[in-house]
Amino acid sequence: MATTIQTQQGSFTNTILHGDCIEVMHQMPANSVDFILTDPPYLVNYRDRDGRSIQNDADTAWLKPAMKEAYRVLKQNRVAIMFYGWTRVDAFFEAWREAGFRPVGHLVFQKAYSSKSRFLRYHHEQAYLLAKGRPPLPKQPLADVIEMPYSGNKLHPTQKPVEALAPLIRAFSLPGELVLDPFAGSGSSCAAALLTGRRYLGIELDDAYFAQATARITRVKERIAAKRTSSAGIPTCG
Question: Are 130 and 93 in contact (CB under 8 A)?
Fold first, then answer.
């Protein structure tokens, strides 16, 4: 069933929407997003030790349409950071280039633990920095190797830690700007955006992960409100 959302700008701000990201982004105004930070399915049919999986992780049909819509909603002269699976980098690159994205950087997220061992022990994740148009260079560029502490993966099988995402949001967006995550998962990008003073929009297809992400954002908002109340010298409980 198609996802139908009111097209007012406010409908796409500070919320996590439940639906197909292609359909949702198609309803969004063009050039309405300041920064995209997302961790899409890696196309590897991943299943964790508890048997949890990710929808569309063995299907490439969504990839090109999703990247096309992501490019359309991103503002001109802005950037996106997208994680990817290294074994399917050819598919991701083809989709990015066809959409119009131009690779301008590559990020490696170093982990202290090995997520898998085969020919090598895998101690990193990776993402590309993709440009739409000609974005200005940041005044203080980030290092292209970033520490990624273990999130625990309690809410999602590939849950990214907020600590690794917040610096990316600060580097490539300004307070009050809109950060989009079309594959929101457990809501890590949205939580990082909220904690750094940005507006956010997450989209998640899976029922269970959508519920986890929504509950998580509620908890983050409650912690922020409690901290503000405490800082103002007002008791936080009756």
Answer: no
